[in-house]
Structure to design on (526 residues):
Protein backbone atom coordinates (compact mmCIF):
# COMPACT_ATOMS: atom_id res chain seq x y z
CA UNK A 1 0.00 0.00 0.00
CA UNK A 2 3.02 2.30 0.18
CA UNK A 3 6.64 2.65 -0.89
CA UNK A 4 8.94 1.93 2.03
CA UNK A 5 12.04 1.37 -0.09
CA UNK A 6 13.87 4.35 1.39
CA UNK A 7 13.11 3.26 4.96
CA UNK A 8 14.17 -0.32 4.20
CA UNK A 9 17.43 0.92 2.72
CA UNK A 10 18.07 2.98 5.87
CA UNK A 11 17.48 0.00 8.13
CA UNK A 12 19.72 -2.23 6.00
CA UNK A 13 22.70 0.14 6.35
CA UNK A 14 24.93 -0.46 9.42
CA UNK A 15 25.88 3.22 9.38
CA UNK A 16 22.28 4.12 10.33
CA UNK A 17 22.67 2.72 13.85
CA UNK A 18 24.48 3.88 16.94
CA UNK A 19 27.62 1.82 17.41
CA UNK A 20 27.70 0.97 13.69
CA UNK A 21 27.21 -2.81 13.93
CA UNK A 22 29.38 -4.81 11.59
CA UNK A 23 26.41 -6.42 9.84
CA UNK A 24 22.63 -6.34 9.67
CA UNK A 25 20.39 -9.40 9.47
CA UNK A 26 16.93 -8.99 7.95
CA UNK A 27 13.93 -11.26 8.61
CA UNK A 28 10.74 -10.80 6.58
CA UNK A 29 7.20 -11.95 7.27
CA UNK A 30 3.96 -11.19 5.47
CA UNK A 31 3.42 -8.14 7.72
CA UNK A 32 6.81 -6.95 8.99
CA UNK A 33 10.51 -6.69 8.34
CA UNK A 34 12.82 -7.14 11.33
CA UNK A 35 16.40 -5.87 11.31
CA UNK A 36 18.88 -7.34 13.79
CA UNK A 37 21.52 -4.71 14.50
CA UNK A 38 24.02 -5.08 17.32
CA UNK A 39 22.28 -5.47 20.67
CA UNK A 40 18.86 -4.47 19.35
CA UNK A 41 16.19 -5.53 16.88
CA UNK A 42 14.03 -3.04 14.94
CA UNK A 43 10.67 -4.12 13.58
CA UNK A 44 9.14 -2.20 10.69
CA UNK A 45 5.53 -2.94 9.93
CA UNK A 46 5.11 -3.36 6.19
CA UNK A 47 2.76 -1.00 4.38
CA UNK A 48 0.25 -3.72 3.55
CA UNK A 49 -3.45 -4.28 3.94
CA UNK A 50 -5.09 -7.69 4.17
CA UNK A 51 -8.55 -8.73 5.22
CA UNK A 52 -7.17 -9.24 8.74
CA UNK A 53 -4.85 -6.23 9.22
CA UNK A 54 -4.33 -2.72 7.92
CA UNK A 55 -0.87 -1.14 8.07
CA UNK A 56 -1.49 1.01 5.00
CA UNK A 57 -0.66 4.40 6.61
CA UNK A 58 2.15 5.60 8.86
CA UNK A 59 -0.38 6.63 11.51
CA UNK A 60 -1.89 3.15 11.58
CA UNK A 61 1.60 1.70 11.90
CA UNK A 62 2.41 4.05 14.80
CA UNK A 63 -0.70 3.02 16.73
CA UNK A 64 0.05 -0.62 16.05
CA UNK A 65 3.64 -0.25 17.27
CA UNK A 66 2.46 1.33 20.51
CA UNK A 67 -0.13 -1.41 21.05
CA UNK A 68 2.48 -4.08 20.34
CA UNK A 69 4.81 -2.75 23.03
CA UNK A 70 1.99 -2.40 25.57
CA UNK A 71 0.59 -5.88 25.04
CA UNK A 72 3.90 -7.69 24.85
CA UNK A 73 5.22 -6.15 28.03
CA UNK A 74 2.72 -8.45 29.79
CA UNK A 75 4.97 -11.42 29.05
CA UNK A 76 8.30 -9.97 27.84
CA UNK A 77 8.82 -6.63 29.55
CA UNK A 78 12.60 -6.86 29.33
CA UNK A 79 12.53 -7.43 25.56
CA UNK A 80 10.40 -4.44 24.50
CA UNK A 81 12.38 -1.19 24.73
CA UNK A 82 9.72 1.01 23.13
CA UNK A 83 8.61 2.73 19.92
CA UNK A 84 11.18 4.62 17.84
CA UNK A 85 10.39 6.93 14.89
CA UNK A 86 12.08 7.00 11.51
CA UNK A 87 12.48 10.74 10.89
CA UNK A 88 13.12 13.04 7.95
CA UNK A 89 15.96 15.33 8.99
CA UNK A 90 16.54 18.93 7.87
CA UNK A 91 19.02 17.79 5.21
CA UNK A 92 16.40 15.47 3.71
CA UNK A 93 17.98 12.25 4.88
CA UNK A 94 16.23 9.66 7.01
CA UNK A 95 17.37 8.79 10.52
CA UNK A 96 16.44 6.31 13.23
CA UNK A 97 15.10 8.24 16.21
CA UNK A 98 16.19 11.60 14.88
CA UNK A 99 14.80 15.06 15.64
CA UNK A 100 12.97 15.57 12.35
CA UNK A 101 9.44 14.79 11.20
CA UNK A 102 8.43 11.13 11.72
CA UNK A 103 7.73 9.29 8.46
CA UNK A 104 7.46 5.78 9.86
CA UNK A 105 7.71 3.87 13.12
CA UNK A 106 9.67 0.99 14.58
CA UNK A 107 9.26 -1.35 17.52
CA UNK A 108 12.64 -1.43 19.21
CA UNK A 109 13.51 -4.64 21.06
CA UNK A 110 16.49 -5.97 22.91
CA UNK A 111 18.09 -8.64 20.79
CA UNK A 112 18.27 -12.25 21.93
CA UNK A 113 20.20 -15.23 20.54
CA UNK A 114 18.21 -16.62 17.63
CA UNK A 115 19.24 -20.16 18.56
CA UNK A 116 17.15 -19.78 21.73
CA UNK A 117 13.92 -19.45 19.74
CA UNK A 118 11.80 -22.53 20.27
CA UNK A 119 11.43 -23.17 16.55
CA UNK A 120 15.23 -23.50 16.40
CA UNK A 121 15.25 -25.71 19.50
CA UNK A 122 12.55 -27.86 17.90
CA UNK A 123 14.88 -28.61 15.00
CA UNK A 124 17.84 -29.40 17.26
CA UNK A 125 15.84 -31.63 19.62
CA UNK A 126 16.01 -29.10 22.44
CA UNK A 127 12.36 -29.17 23.55
CA UNK A 128 12.61 -31.60 26.42
CA UNK A 129 9.68 -32.92 28.46
CA UNK A 130 10.75 -30.64 31.30
CA UNK A 131 10.79 -27.60 28.99
CA UNK A 132 7.36 -28.57 27.64
CA UNK A 133 6.00 -28.56 31.20
CA UNK A 134 7.58 -25.19 32.01
CA UNK A 135 6.16 -23.76 28.81
CA UNK A 136 2.67 -24.97 29.69
CA UNK A 137 3.02 -23.47 33.16
CA UNK A 138 4.01 -20.12 31.67
CA UNK A 139 1.04 -20.10 29.31
CA UNK A 140 -1.37 -21.16 32.05
CA UNK A 141 -0.16 -18.28 34.25
CA UNK A 142 -0.51 -15.84 31.35
CA UNK A 143 -4.04 -16.96 30.54
CA UNK A 144 -5.07 -16.76 34.20
CA UNK A 145 -3.94 -13.12 34.33
CA UNK A 146 -5.26 -12.09 30.91
CA UNK A 147 -8.19 -9.68 30.84
CA UNK A 148 -11.58 -11.23 30.01
CA UNK A 149 -13.07 -10.18 26.65
CA UNK A 150 -16.71 -11.36 26.81
CA UNK A 151 -17.83 -9.29 23.81
CA UNK A 152 -15.64 -11.24 21.37
CA UNK A 153 -15.04 -14.87 20.49
CA UNK A 154 -17.80 -17.40 20.90
CA UNK A 155 -19.82 -18.75 17.99
CA UNK A 156 -19.62 -15.56 15.94
CA UNK A 157 -15.88 -15.21 16.42
CA UNK A 158 -15.10 -18.73 15.26
CA UNK A 159 -17.56 -18.51 12.39
CA UNK A 160 -15.69 -15.43 11.17
CA UNK A 161 -12.36 -17.27 11.41
CA UNK A 162 -13.72 -20.24 9.46
CA UNK A 163 -15.40 -18.08 6.82
CA UNK A 164 -12.25 -16.01 6.26
CA UNK A 165 -10.13 -19.15 5.99
CA UNK A 166 -12.64 -20.70 3.59
CA UNK A 167 -12.57 -17.68 1.27
CA UNK A 168 -8.77 -17.47 1.24
CA UNK A 169 -8.24 -21.19 0.67
CA UNK A 170 -10.93 -21.43 -2.03
CA UNK A 171 -9.35 -18.48 -3.84
CA UNK A 172 -6.04 -20.38 -3.95
CA UNK A 173 -7.33 -23.54 -5.62
CA UNK A 174 -4.74 -24.35 -8.22
CA UNK A 175 -1.92 -23.71 -5.81
CA UNK A 176 -3.89 -25.79 -3.28
CA UNK A 177 -5.66 -29.09 -3.93
CA UNK A 178 -9.38 -28.48 -4.47
CA UNK A 179 -10.53 -31.66 -2.70
CA UNK A 180 -8.44 -30.94 0.40
CA UNK A 181 -9.70 -27.36 0.50
CA UNK A 182 -13.28 -28.62 0.35
CA UNK A 183 -12.59 -31.19 3.09
CA UNK A 184 -11.12 -28.62 5.46
CA UNK A 185 -13.70 -25.92 4.78
CA UNK A 186 -16.67 -28.27 5.15
CA UNK A 187 -15.33 -29.88 8.34
CA UNK A 188 -14.66 -26.49 9.96
CA UNK A 189 -18.06 -25.09 8.98
CA UNK A 190 -19.85 -28.19 10.28
CA UNK A 191 -17.89 -28.04 13.55
CA UNK A 192 -18.84 -24.40 14.19
CA UNK A 193 -22.50 -25.22 13.59
CA UNK A 194 -22.35 -28.28 15.86
CA UNK A 195 -20.31 -26.69 18.63
CA UNK A 196 -21.95 -23.26 18.66
CA UNK A 197 -23.54 -23.74 22.11
CA UNK A 198 -20.22 -24.85 23.58
CA UNK A 199 -18.43 -21.85 22.09
CA UNK A 200 -21.06 -19.52 23.54
CA UNK A 201 -20.90 -21.17 26.95
CA UNK A 202 -17.13 -20.70 26.97
CA UNK A 203 -17.46 -17.03 26.08
CA UNK A 204 -20.08 -16.45 28.77
CA UNK A 205 -17.97 -18.36 31.28
CA UNK A 206 -14.98 -16.03 30.98
CA UNK A 207 -12.73 -18.25 28.85
CA UNK A 208 -12.46 -15.67 26.05
CA UNK A 209 -9.60 -13.39 27.07
CA UNK A 210 -7.03 -10.93 25.69
CA UNK A 211 -4.63 -13.71 24.74
CA UNK A 212 -1.45 -13.85 22.69
CA UNK A 213 -3.12 -14.69 19.39
CA UNK A 214 -0.02 -15.91 17.53
CA UNK A 215 1.37 -18.44 19.96
CA UNK A 216 3.65 -20.60 17.86
CA UNK A 217 7.22 -21.73 18.43
CA UNK A 218 8.86 -18.84 16.62
CA UNK A 219 7.22 -16.40 19.02
CA UNK A 220 8.64 -18.04 22.14
CA UNK A 221 12.25 -17.69 23.26
CA UNK A 222 14.28 -18.94 26.21
CA UNK A 223 15.55 -16.00 28.25
CA UNK A 224 17.65 -17.16 31.22
CA UNK A 225 16.09 -20.60 30.65
CA UNK A 226 12.57 -19.18 31.08
CA UNK A 227 10.09 -19.61 28.17
CA UNK A 228 9.23 -16.05 27.16
CA UNK A 229 6.22 -15.25 24.96
CA UNK A 230 6.60 -12.31 22.58
CA UNK A 231 5.15 -10.85 19.38
CA UNK A 232 1.53 -11.11 20.52
CA UNK A 233 -1.14 -9.90 18.10
CA UNK A 234 -1.85 -6.20 18.49
CA UNK A 235 -3.38 -5.35 15.11
CA UNK A 236 -6.74 -7.12 15.40
CA UNK A 237 -8.60 -7.79 18.66
CA UNK A 238 -10.65 -10.47 16.92
CA UNK A 239 -7.40 -12.46 16.63
CA UNK A 240 -6.22 -11.83 20.18
CA UNK A 241 -9.48 -11.84 22.18
CA UNK A 242 -10.13 -15.55 21.89
CA UNK A 243 -10.78 -18.71 23.86
CA UNK A 244 -7.70 -19.66 25.87
CA UNK A 245 -7.71 -23.12 24.26
CA UNK A 246 -7.75 -21.54 20.81
CA UNK A 247 -4.68 -19.57 21.87
CA UNK A 248 -2.90 -22.71 23.05
CA UNK A 249 -4.01 -24.60 19.93
CA UNK A 250 -1.56 -22.63 17.78
CA UNK A 251 1.38 -23.95 19.79
CA UNK A 252 -0.01 -27.48 19.83
CA UNK A 253 -0.58 -27.37 16.07
CA UNK A 254 2.97 -26.13 15.50
CA UNK A 255 4.42 -28.97 17.55
CA UNK A 256 2.24 -31.54 15.82
CA UNK A 257 3.16 -30.19 12.40
CA UNK A 258 6.83 -30.69 13.26
CA UNK A 259 6.16 -34.31 14.31
CA UNK A 260 6.75 -33.40 17.96
CA UNK A 261 3.65 -35.24 19.17
CA UNK A 262 5.17 -36.18 22.52
CA UNK A 263 6.01 -32.55 23.30
CA UNK A 264 2.55 -31.43 22.19
CA UNK A 265 0.96 -33.99 24.48
CA UNK A 266 3.24 -32.91 27.33
CA UNK A 267 2.22 -29.26 26.97
CA UNK A 268 -1.43 -30.30 26.68
CA UNK A 269 -1.40 -32.45 29.80
CA UNK A 270 0.52 -29.98 31.94
CA UNK A 271 -1.84 -27.16 30.90
CA UNK A 272 -4.81 -29.34 31.82
CA UNK A 273 -3.26 -30.21 35.17
CA UNK A 274 -2.69 -26.52 35.93
CA UNK A 275 -6.09 -25.28 34.78
CA UNK A 276 -8.48 -28.28 35.17
CA UNK A 277 -10.23 -26.78 32.14
CA UNK A 278 -11.86 -29.72 30.39
CA UNK A 279 -14.54 -27.57 28.78
CA UNK A 280 -12.39 -26.77 25.77
CA UNK A 281 -11.59 -30.37 24.82
CA UNK A 282 -14.57 -30.80 22.44
CA UNK A 283 -13.36 -27.72 20.57
CA UNK A 284 -9.75 -28.79 20.06
CA UNK A 285 -10.14 -30.49 16.64
CA UNK A 286 -11.82 -27.35 15.30
CA UNK A 287 -9.25 -25.07 16.93
CA UNK A 288 -6.28 -27.10 15.68
CA UNK A 289 -7.70 -27.35 12.16
CA UNK A 290 -8.33 -23.60 12.03
CA UNK A 291 -4.81 -22.85 13.23
CA UNK A 292 -3.27 -25.01 10.52
CA UNK A 293 -5.58 -23.42 7.93
CA UNK A 294 -4.51 -19.95 9.06
CA UNK A 295 -0.88 -20.94 8.59
CA UNK A 296 -1.75 -22.13 5.10
CA UNK A 297 -3.43 -18.79 4.42
CA UNK A 298 -0.54 -16.66 5.72
CA UNK A 299 1.95 -18.75 3.75
CA UNK A 300 -0.05 -17.91 0.63
CA UNK A 301 0.07 -14.24 1.59
CA UNK A 302 3.85 -14.41 1.93
CA UNK A 303 4.07 -16.13 -1.45
CA UNK A 304 2.10 -13.29 -3.03
CA UNK A 305 4.72 -10.78 -1.85
CA UNK A 306 7.70 -12.73 -3.14
CA UNK A 307 9.47 -11.66 -6.32
CA UNK A 308 11.95 -14.55 -6.08
CA UNK A 309 10.46 -17.59 -7.79
CA UNK A 310 12.22 -20.13 -5.57
CA UNK A 311 11.04 -18.42 -2.38
CA UNK A 312 7.52 -18.13 -3.76
CA UNK A 313 7.49 -21.86 -4.53
CA UNK A 314 8.72 -22.57 -0.98
CA UNK A 315 5.86 -20.57 0.56
CA UNK A 316 3.33 -22.27 -1.69
CA UNK A 317 4.65 -25.72 -0.71
CA UNK A 318 4.37 -24.69 2.93
CA UNK A 319 0.76 -23.64 2.36
CA UNK A 320 -0.01 -27.09 0.95
CA UNK A 321 1.66 -28.81 3.89
CA UNK A 322 -0.39 -26.79 6.39
CA UNK A 323 -3.59 -27.48 4.48
CA UNK A 324 -2.90 -31.24 4.66
CA UNK A 325 -2.21 -30.88 8.38
CA UNK A 326 -5.53 -29.04 8.84
CA UNK A 327 -7.37 -31.89 7.13
CA UNK A 328 -5.83 -34.37 9.57
CA UNK A 329 -6.40 -32.35 12.73
CA UNK A 330 -9.97 -31.13 12.21
CA UNK A 331 -11.61 -34.57 12.26
CA UNK A 332 -12.12 -35.83 15.86
CA UNK A 333 -11.26 -39.41 16.76
CA UNK A 334 -13.44 -41.53 19.07
CA UNK A 335 -12.27 -41.58 22.71
CA UNK A 336 -10.93 -44.63 24.50
CA UNK A 337 -9.47 -45.63 27.87
CA UNK A 338 -6.12 -47.28 28.52
CA UNK A 339 -5.26 -48.25 32.10
CA UNK A 340 -1.63 -49.06 32.97
CA UNK A 341 -1.05 -50.97 36.21
CA UNK A 342 1.88 -52.52 37.99
CA UNK A 343 3.90 -52.33 41.17
CA UNK A 344 5.86 -49.21 42.07
CA UNK A 345 8.87 -48.81 39.79
CA UNK A 346 7.46 -50.94 36.97
CA UNK A 347 7.54 -48.05 34.48
CA UNK A 348 3.87 -47.09 34.33
CA UNK A 349 4.41 -43.35 34.00
CA UNK A 350 7.05 -43.75 31.31
CA UNK A 351 4.76 -45.96 29.24
CA UNK A 352 1.77 -43.65 29.83
CA UNK A 353 3.72 -40.66 28.47
CA UNK A 354 4.79 -42.75 25.47
CA UNK A 355 1.28 -43.97 24.61
CA UNK A 356 -0.74 -40.83 25.30
CA UNK A 357 0.24 -38.92 22.11
CA UNK A 358 -1.01 -41.85 20.00
CA UNK A 359 -4.52 -42.10 21.46
CA UNK A 360 -7.68 -40.29 20.45
CA UNK A 361 -7.73 -36.88 18.79
CA UNK A 362 -4.47 -34.91 18.61
CA UNK A 363 -2.67 -33.96 20.74
CA UNK A 364 -3.60 -37.30 22.30
CA UNK A 365 -4.86 -38.73 25.54
CA UNK A 366 -5.20 -37.09 28.93
CA UNK A 367 -2.85 -38.77 31.39
CA UNK A 368 -4.41 -39.29 34.83
CA UNK A 369 -1.75 -40.28 37.32
CA UNK A 370 -2.83 -41.45 40.76
CA UNK A 371 0.28 -40.01 42.41
CA UNK A 372 -0.43 -36.53 41.05
CA UNK A 373 -4.12 -36.71 41.88
CA UNK A 374 -3.35 -37.79 45.46
CA UNK A 375 -1.15 -34.70 45.88
CA UNK A 376 -3.92 -32.54 44.48
CA UNK A 377 -6.36 -33.94 47.04
CA UNK A 378 -3.99 -32.71 49.74
CA UNK A 379 -3.41 -29.37 47.94
CA UNK A 380 0.34 -29.83 47.57
CA UNK A 381 2.66 -29.74 44.56
CA UNK A 382 3.27 -33.06 42.78
CA UNK A 383 6.90 -33.23 43.98
CA UNK A 384 6.05 -32.52 47.62
CA UNK A 385 6.29 -35.52 49.93
CA UNK A 386 3.20 -36.72 51.79
CA UNK A 387 3.19 -38.52 55.11
CA UNK A 388 1.74 -41.96 55.91
CA UNK A 389 -1.71 -40.51 56.66
CA UNK A 390 -2.09 -39.74 52.94
CA UNK A 391 -1.78 -43.45 52.13
CA UNK A 392 -4.40 -44.83 54.49
CA UNK A 393 -6.81 -47.26 52.76
CA UNK A 394 -9.71 -44.80 52.78
CA UNK A 395 -7.57 -42.10 51.17
CA UNK A 396 -6.48 -44.55 48.48
CA UNK A 397 -10.10 -45.48 47.82
CA UNK A 398 -10.85 -41.76 47.45
CA UNK A 399 -7.98 -41.44 44.97
CA UNK A 400 -9.46 -44.19 42.77
CA UNK A 401 -12.93 -42.67 43.03
CA UNK A 402 -11.47 -39.33 41.93
CA UNK A 403 -9.61 -41.02 39.05
CA UNK A 404 -12.87 -42.59 37.87
CA UNK A 405 -14.73 -39.29 38.09
CA UNK A 406 -12.01 -37.40 36.24
CA UNK A 407 -11.77 -40.08 33.55
CA UNK A 408 -15.54 -39.93 33.05
CA UNK A 409 -15.38 -36.16 32.69
CA UNK A 410 -12.64 -36.40 30.07
CA UNK A 411 -14.56 -39.01 28.10
CA UNK A 412 -17.70 -36.88 28.24
CA UNK A 413 -15.67 -34.03 26.75
CA UNK A 414 -14.54 -36.27 23.88
CA UNK A 415 -11.04 -36.94 25.15
CA UNK A 416 -9.18 -40.21 25.51
CA UNK A 417 -7.69 -41.24 28.85
CA UNK A 418 -4.54 -42.99 30.01
CA UNK A 419 -4.85 -43.94 33.68
CA UNK A 420 -1.52 -44.48 35.44
CA UNK A 421 -1.94 -46.22 38.82
CA UNK A 422 -0.83 -49.37 40.59
CA UNK A 423 -4.31 -50.97 40.35
CA UNK A 424 -3.31 -53.43 43.06
CA UNK A 425 -6.89 -54.40 43.93
CA UNK A 426 -9.24 -56.21 41.52
CA UNK A 427 -12.01 -53.72 42.34
CA UNK A 428 -9.87 -50.83 41.08
CA UNK A 429 -9.12 -52.63 37.81
CA UNK A 430 -12.81 -53.43 37.39
CA UNK A 431 -13.68 -49.81 38.12
CA UNK A 432 -11.48 -48.55 35.28
CA UNK A 433 -13.26 -50.85 32.84
CA UNK A 434 -16.66 -49.69 34.11
CA UNK A 435 -15.81 -46.05 33.45
CA UNK A 436 -15.05 -46.86 29.82
CA UNK A 437 -18.18 -49.01 29.47
CA UNK A 438 -20.37 -46.26 30.88
CA UNK A 439 -19.08 -43.90 28.19
CA UNK A 440 -19.30 -46.50 25.43
CA UNK A 441 -15.55 -46.24 24.91
CA UNK A 442 -13.11 -49.08 24.14
CA UNK A 443 -11.01 -50.16 27.13
CA UNK A 444 -7.57 -51.72 27.37
CA UNK A 445 -5.87 -52.66 30.63
CA UNK A 446 -2.13 -53.33 30.59
CA UNK A 447 -0.18 -54.85 33.46
CA UNK A 448 3.59 -54.35 33.64
CA UNK A 449 5.81 -57.08 35.02
CA UNK A 450 9.34 -56.25 36.15
CA UNK A 451 11.82 -58.19 38.33
CA UNK A 452 11.76 -56.87 41.90
CA UNK A 453 15.46 -55.98 41.86
CA UNK A 454 14.98 -53.71 38.84
CA UNK A 455 11.93 -52.01 40.38
CA UNK A 456 13.93 -51.37 43.54
CA UNK A 457 16.79 -49.94 41.50
CA UNK A 458 14.42 -47.58 39.66
CA UNK A 459 12.88 -46.38 42.91
CA UNK A 460 16.33 -45.67 44.28
CA UNK A 461 17.17 -43.47 41.29
CA UNK A 462 14.03 -41.29 41.50
CA UNK A 463 14.35 -37.58 42.21
CA UNK A 464 11.62 -34.92 42.21
CA UNK A 465 8.89 -37.37 41.26
CA UNK A 466 5.22 -37.30 42.19
CA UNK A 467 5.46 -40.82 43.56
CA UNK A 468 6.40 -41.22 47.22
CA UNK A 469 6.97 -44.95 46.80
CA UNK A 470 10.06 -46.36 48.51
CA UNK A 471 11.69 -49.77 48.53
CA UNK A 472 9.77 -50.51 51.74
CA UNK A 473 6.51 -49.74 49.92
CA UNK A 474 7.55 -52.05 47.08
CA UNK A 475 8.32 -54.87 49.49
CA UNK A 476 4.83 -54.58 51.01
CA UNK A 477 3.30 -54.64 47.52
CA UNK A 478 5.26 -57.77 46.64
CA UNK A 479 3.78 -59.56 49.66
CA UNK A 480 0.21 -58.51 48.89
CA UNK A 481 -2.50 -60.48 47.11
CA UNK A 482 -3.18 -58.95 43.68
CA UNK A 483 -5.98 -61.37 42.80
CA UNK A 484 -6.51 -62.55 39.25
CA UNK A 485 -5.10 -60.15 36.66
CA UNK A 486 -6.92 -60.58 33.36
CA UNK A 487 -5.21 -57.65 31.61
CA UNK A 488 -2.47 -58.32 29.03
CA UNK A 489 0.78 -58.70 30.98
CA UNK A 490 3.87 -57.21 29.40
CA UNK A 491 7.52 -57.60 30.30
CA UNK A 492 8.48 -53.99 31.05
CA UNK A 493 12.24 -54.50 31.12
CA UNK A 494 12.93 -53.52 27.46
CA UNK A 495 13.39 -49.85 26.42
CA UNK A 496 10.17 -47.85 26.25
CA UNK A 497 10.17 -47.88 22.44
CA UNK A 498 9.92 -51.69 22.39
CA UNK A 499 7.52 -51.80 25.32
CA UNK A 500 5.42 -49.06 23.71
CA UNK A 501 5.12 -51.04 20.48
CA UNK A 502 3.86 -54.08 22.38
CA UNK A 503 1.46 -51.97 24.42
CA UNK A 504 0.13 -50.30 21.29
CA UNK A 505 -0.44 -53.71 19.75
CA UNK A 506 -2.50 -54.64 22.82
CA UNK A 507 -4.50 -51.45 22.47
CA UNK A 508 -5.11 -52.11 18.79
CA UNK A 509 -6.45 -55.50 19.72
CA UNK A 510 -9.31 -53.82 21.58
CA UNK A 511 -12.72 -53.02 20.11
CA UNK A 512 -11.67 -50.03 17.99
CA UNK A 513 -8.57 -49.49 15.83
CA UNK A 514 -5.85 -47.01 16.76
CA UNK A 515 -4.23 -45.02 13.94
CA UNK A 516 -0.60 -45.77 13.29
CA UNK A 517 1.74 -43.00 14.47
CA UNK A 518 2.81 -42.19 10.91
CA UNK A 519 -0.77 -41.48 9.82
CA UNK A 520 -1.47 -39.03 12.62
CA UNK A 521 0.57 -36.00 11.56
CA UNK A 522 2.13 -34.39 8.53
CA UNK A 523 5.87 -33.99 8.21
CA UNK A 524 7.00 -30.54 9.35
CA UNK A 525 6.27 -27.80 6.82
CA UNK A 526 9.09 -26.96 4.46
Amino acid sequence: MGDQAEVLALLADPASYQGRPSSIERIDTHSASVFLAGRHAYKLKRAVRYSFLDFSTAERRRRSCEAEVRLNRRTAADLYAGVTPVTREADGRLAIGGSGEPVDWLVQMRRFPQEQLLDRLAVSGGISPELARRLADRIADFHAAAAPAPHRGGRAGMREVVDDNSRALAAAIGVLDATTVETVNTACQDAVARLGPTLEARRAGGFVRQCHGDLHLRNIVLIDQAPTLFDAVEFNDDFACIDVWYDLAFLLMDLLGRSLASQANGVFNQYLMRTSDLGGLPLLPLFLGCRAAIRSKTSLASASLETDAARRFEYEARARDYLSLAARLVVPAPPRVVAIGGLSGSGKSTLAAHLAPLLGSPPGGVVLRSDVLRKALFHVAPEEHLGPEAYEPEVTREVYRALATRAGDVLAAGGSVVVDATFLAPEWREGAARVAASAGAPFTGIWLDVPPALMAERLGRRTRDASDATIDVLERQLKGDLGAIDWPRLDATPPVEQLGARALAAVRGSAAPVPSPDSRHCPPPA
Q: What stands out?
A: The chain has a mean pLDDT of 93. The chain has three domains: 5-111, 118-329, 337-519. The first strand starts at residue 24 and ends at 28.
